[in-house]
Amino acid sequence: MSSNVASVADNTSRDTTGFHDLPLDERLQTARDGTAFFGRHLAQISDADLDGSSSLPGWTRKHVLAHVGYNAAALCNLITWAATGVETPMYSSFEQRNLEIEQGATQSAAALRNLFSHTAARLDEAWRHLPSDRWSHEVRTIQGRTIPASETAWLRTREVWIHAVDLGTAGSFADFPEPVLADLFDDVLSGWRRNDDGAQLRLMPAGQTATDVDPGFDGTRIEVSGSLAAIVGWMCGRSTDGITTAEGVTPPRWI
Ligand code: ZN
Question: How far apart are the first and last CA of the chain?
Answer without folding.
Answer: 30
